[in-house]
Amino acid sequence: MATGMKEQQFAGYTLSCKRGRFKVKEVMRLLKLTYWAKDRDAATTRESLRHSHPFGVFAPDGKMVGFLRITSDHSTMYYLADVVVMDEERGKGLGLALVKYALSNRKVCRGKGLLLTHTANGLYEKVGFYNQADRLMVRDPLPDEVYKPSGSAQA
Ligand SMILES: CC(C)(COP(=O)(O)OP(=O)(O)OC[C@H]1O[C@@H](n2cnc3c(N)ncnc32)[C@H](O)[C@@H]1OP(=O)(O)O)[C@@H](O)C(=O)NCCC(=O)NCCS
């Protein structure tokens, strides 16, 4: 699923969503800095990348210093996740630039935008997200054993 979006420059860094730039190991290096995905394994990371749109910030030497993913139906909703910038690169505007770059993709970001956060509300408010606690429901992950091989879930 190509997003058809060009790379952009920001303060000497490159904003990109070219799939070839996203290596599982590199993504995991950044996810280890987060509180929600620090233990995510390689298989899960690979699968999550395959089924979503990755966006990144890359330093002049090509190293990825920021990452996020968007899961979308390209028509009614999109979900922003795994937003992270390397510690030593924070506070330079890279996180906001990356979020803006991703959200400017009209093919992927159509309809209602969703995300979960309890640490970076201020960042997302800058691009139009707001709290709607009265209607949010979530479902936690279930163990694999719950799903029967036939595909009929018991949960
Ligand atoms: C959140 C994170 C991605 C921000 O990246 P960053 O590159 O440091 O952010 P920026 O420099 O682009 O900040 C842009 C603006 O957003 C604001 N902002 C950034 N992080 C924020 C936070 N955690 N809470 C509130 N506002 C925040 C900044 O104050 C700045 O506003 P200003 O220009 O008015 O000063 C980064 O701190 C990070 O990786 N944190 C750990 C992972 C995480 O918590 N991710 C978000 C979970 S949903």
Give an overview of the whole structure.
- This protein is an alpha+beta fold and about 160 residues long.
- It has one domain: Gcn5-related N-acetyltransferase (GNAT) (Aminopeptidase).
- Helices cover about 20% and strands about 20% of the residues.
- The chain has helices spanning about 25-30, 40-50, 95-105, 120-125; strands at about 10, 15, 55-60, 65-70, 75-85, 110-115.
- Strands 1-2-3-4-5-6 form a 6-stranded mixed sheet, with helices on both faces.
- Strand 3 (about 55-60) and strand 4 form a beta hairpin.
- Helix 1 crosses helix 2 (about 40-50).
- The mean pLDDT is about 95.
- The structure holds coenzyme A.
Note the run of SSEs as H and E.
EEHHEEEHEH
| Radius of gyration based on Cα positions | 16 Å
Helical content band: 10-25%
Largest sheet: 6 strands, mixed
Bound chemical compounds? coenzyme A
Briefly note the structural class of the backbone: alpha+beta
Number of helical runs?
A: 4
CATH fold topology: Aminopeptidase
Tell me how many strands there are.
6
Highest CATH level, the class:
Alpha Beta
